[in-house]
Amino acid sequence: MGFFNDSLTPLMGKKSSSSVNGTSGTDNTMDCPECCSLITPSNNWYYSTMMVPKEFKEKVLVHVVSQYMTLNECFVPPLYLAIEGPAGEGKTSQTIAVLTQHNIEVLYVSASEISGSHEGDSVKILNDVYNYAVQRGKRGYCIAILIDDFHMGAINQDSRTEKTINSNLLTGRMMNLADCSDDKRIPIIMTGNDFSTVYAPLLRSGRADMYRWEPDIKLKSVIIQSILDPFVKMNEDEFVQFCSIFRRGTISDFSQLKNDLRKRYVWEMIENKTSLNIEVIRKLDCKMSSLQRLNFQELCELAEKRIKPII
Predict the structure, then answer these.
(1) Which CATH class, in words, describes the domain spanning 3-212?
(2) Contact, 215 vs 94, CB < 8 A?
(3) What fold, for 217-303?
(4) Could you give the CA distance from residue 255 to residue 259 in angstroms, rounded to a whole number?
């Protein structure tokens, strides 16, 4: 089972001075559309050391790299990669981590942002996002568009959802983009819980690759171990047992245990203090790094407050 971590340099509290394709990591000459966020390798300290399974890494990187290869005259790779799976299992965060750790920019947008409220809005918003990414590509940046919660957007074809002109226009525009074979193709990755209500022809073979992400207990235990390892003193077998007991929890639930632990320690440090100012709070930061790590039983007691155990 392969995992990767290309950069272990701590980036907490500061921005990296790394560059992308020989250009500065910050480029203020083009305005990013208000509906989306540009995540670059130079400002991704949260994702820089995130561990990602090899299988997930392969799906994302192969999809993006294929779009930028020049030998696509005989084979035009699908424009879309649709990553489907249960909520909270790391589809979006792992996608961002994989790309930024490999010096690929991410243009992040929520599906709700491209739904639009007036006729034609959705297509205009999508065009703005796509054209911005094209311009970044022309300036030498490798970039991918990430549409989050795609199943919740205007393109949803659920029988309980009223069809609108915007949903029809957006569907048509996305199909046109998928069928375009010019040199302006920008890879698009879509994440969602359930793509069964998305217009089927949009996700057919040739336009989209489907990938289901639902890690089993063994894989999830390795991911969770990478998240919690700095805060606990447990071996691999204990992590497997821990994940089995709390298997109802998602990866995001386990990730939040770090925050639960932090809040508990913060309260212990400030409970008896009568005055809290910036200087005092900054001293608390220094103490946090020397706190005692949890053992198996202590971690289980912490987890029980967030995740229902299965005994």
Answers:
(1) alpha beta
(2) no
(3) Helicase, Ruva Protein; domain 3 (1.10.8)
(4) 8
